């Protein structure tokens, strides 16, 4: 390369490195940039040298980011290999150099590149914080994903509108696929928690589409051979997204078991459920039989006016009954019970759920006696604001039954994908 850099050379460098980093070929990108640095080490164009050195650091940061090592305990990392430290340093450097550029044609070209790369690394820092918040959801220090969904929607809009350099298209594509995949899955979780069949189904399909595009970036034989050495391995971030989607599919299969089972034979549907990440219904059914429980069920609170949950499809203009006037305020999402028990017990379950003194909690199992003679023991645990796990036993049973409460808490955690979020931190159990 000549000592006097041209705009075309800037564009060629950005195209090449963006394609390599966007294709997960971080080591190859680093090698290419190191050759470029050696060839131009005597160049008087300082901003060019900074660009090359910065892209080397960016390739290292991206490799760490995709391996999820940015969430590892600090003692597991050396400071200079931390993605966060690299992104923060790049943010400061890009801003410093951009502020010192002139209005020459080449500098204006470099200025746009620096500003776009600055936008990219600041976006990465935002996503680092976002994944940390998801980990907090998994560790029980933060509840729900609704607020996070809104934050990610705003971030996605900003990236689409402001990260638009034509020679960094491969980097933009990676961010788009990652963010759209995660956003679709968070929406799915929100819709599952309010028992919305069609919206959840559509969001799951969107997640599947975007995740396939994200995964396709590492599908080439060269990428797999150079980066992972094994044909079956993918970046940790993509593997984690695949696990989250699998968990959501398993929850979807449970919540909408009635409508889904009607679309295939019993044996076929059972076989399909057995292939999911977790066959929740089989687990609930096994618990009910093993413990001789009268009833194990999920109840849906349809008393909220904003809730549009239910089975099957709903026309967008179809009216929803006013609050408190739902024809069945607490329908059973699903139920495992002794024969003919549900019809007799459900009115008692509904009465207990409507009782203000029950004090439903998402972290503590509540207990109540059912019936006029308090002949049955009932345990309740809120899965979400609209869904409650219910276990009923004939006879009086201690409210401190550790096996029952542990089973219910584990079930709730699985349906909320708690372990998946907690696994974001390497080494987490």
From TrEMBL:
Signal peptide region: none
Single biological process term from Gene Ontology: negative regulation of TORC1 signaling
Superkingdom field: Eukaryota
Gene3D superfamilies: 1.10.3450.30
UniProt-listed PANTHER family: KICSTOR COMPLEX PROTEIN C12ORF66, KICSTOR SUBUNIT 2
Protein name according to UniProt: KICSTOR complex protein C12orf66
């Amino acid at each position: 390369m000549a000592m006097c850099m041209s705009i075309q050379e800037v564009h060629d460098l950005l195209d090449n490195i963006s394609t390599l980093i966007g294709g997960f070929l971080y080591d190859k990108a680093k090698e290419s940039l190191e050759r470029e640095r050696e060839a131009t080490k005597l160049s008087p164009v300082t901003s060019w040298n900074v660009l090359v050195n910065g892209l080397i650091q960016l390739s290292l940061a991206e490799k760490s980011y995709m391996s999820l090592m940015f969430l590892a305990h600090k003692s597991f990392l050396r400071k200079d290999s931390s993605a966060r430290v690299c992104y923060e340093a790049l943010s400061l450097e890009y801003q410093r150099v951009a502020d010192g550029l002139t209005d020459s044609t080449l500098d204006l070209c470099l200025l746009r590149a620096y500003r776009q790369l600055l936008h990219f690394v600041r976006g990465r820092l935002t996503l680092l914080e976002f994944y940390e918040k998801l980990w907090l959801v998994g560790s029980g220090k933060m509840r729900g994903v609704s607020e996070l969904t809104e934050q990610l929607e705003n971030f996605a809009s900003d990236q689409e509108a402001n990260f638009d350099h034509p020679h960094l298209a491969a980097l933009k594509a990676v961010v788009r696929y990652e963010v759209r995949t995660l956003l679709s899955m968070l929406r799915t979780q929100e819709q599952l928690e309010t028992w919305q069949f069609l919206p959840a189904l559509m969001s799951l399909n969107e997640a599947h589409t975007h995740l396939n595009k994200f995964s396709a970036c590492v599908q080439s034989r060269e990428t797999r051979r150079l980066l992972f050495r094994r044909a079956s391995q993918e970046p940790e971030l993509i593997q984690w997204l695949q696990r989250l989607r699998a968990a959501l599919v398993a929850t979807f299969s449970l919540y909408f078991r009635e409508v889904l089972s009607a679309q295939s034979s019993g044996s076929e549907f059972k076989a399909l459920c057995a292939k999911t990440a977790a066959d929740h219904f089989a687990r609930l059914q096994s618990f009910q039989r093993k413990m001789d429980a009268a009833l194990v069920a999920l109840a849906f609170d349809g008393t909220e006016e904003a809730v549009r949950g239910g089975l099957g499809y709903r026309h967008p203009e179809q009216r929803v009954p006013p609050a408190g006037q739902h024809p069945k305020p607490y329908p059973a999402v699903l139920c495992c019970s002794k024969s003919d028990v549900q019809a007799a017990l459900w009115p008692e379950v509904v009465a207990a759920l409507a009782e203000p003194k029950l004090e439903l909690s998402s972290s503590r199992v509540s207990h109540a006696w059912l019936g006029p003679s308090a002949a049955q023991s009932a345990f309740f645990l809120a899965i979400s604001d609209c869904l409650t796990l219910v276990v009923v036993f004939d006879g009086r049973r201690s409210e401190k039954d550790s096996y029952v409460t542990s089973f219910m808490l584990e079930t709730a955690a699985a349906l909320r994908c708690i372990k998946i979020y907690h696994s974001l931190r390497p080494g987490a159990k």
